[in-house]
Amino acid sequence: MECCKIIRGYYLTGLGQEELAYYFKVTEEQFEDLNLKVGDILITFYQNQEVITSIPALVRVASLITDKTIVTQYLNSEKIDGFPMLPIVEKYKNFDPIVFKHIMEMYQNMKEEITQLKLK
């Protein structure tokens, strides 16, 4: 990958924003084209501390790391860990916080229904 920028972000799921921050990388060109800023919602792939998946996922940008020295340190850590920072596919331009809140409510309802079904 050509010289890049690093994004620190949090996954948004049916449970809300996850606690752990993850790091992602974008090329210089993609960084400029997407006009990235803190608070943006991006599309990538879902991962956790054990696995990388092909499932598309939303990430909220918490910070942008552009200092070349720090970026180099992150890229070196990636090589040492053998676990890549995932790419950003695209900026999610139509994110609606009200719809996201509805998703979280629907997920909570589904969990409650599962609990009720297990009791029967």
Tell me the structural class. Answer: alpha+beta
Shape: globular
What is the helix content?
25-40%
First-to-last CA distance? 54 Å
Please trace the helix and strand order, writing H or E for each element: EEHEEHEEH
Q: Please count the beta strands (DSSP E, at least 2 residues each).
A: 6
Average predicted confidence as pLDDT = 94
Q: Largest sheet, described in full?
A: 6 strands, mixed
Supply Rg. Answer: 17 Å
User: How large is the share of residues in beta strands?
Assistant: 35-45%
Give a verbal description of the structure.
Helix content is 37%, strand content 39%. By secondary structure, the chain is an alpha+beta fold. The protein has one domain. The longest helix has 23 residues, at 97-119. 13% of the residues are buried.
List keywords for this structure.
single chain; 120 residues
Secondary-structure map with pairings?
Blueprint: E1 4-13, E2 16-27, H1 28-34, E3 41-47, E4 52-65, H2 68-81, E5 86-87, E6 90-91, H3 97-119
Parallel strand pairs: 2-5
Antiparallel strand pairs: 1-2, 1-4, 3-4, 3-6
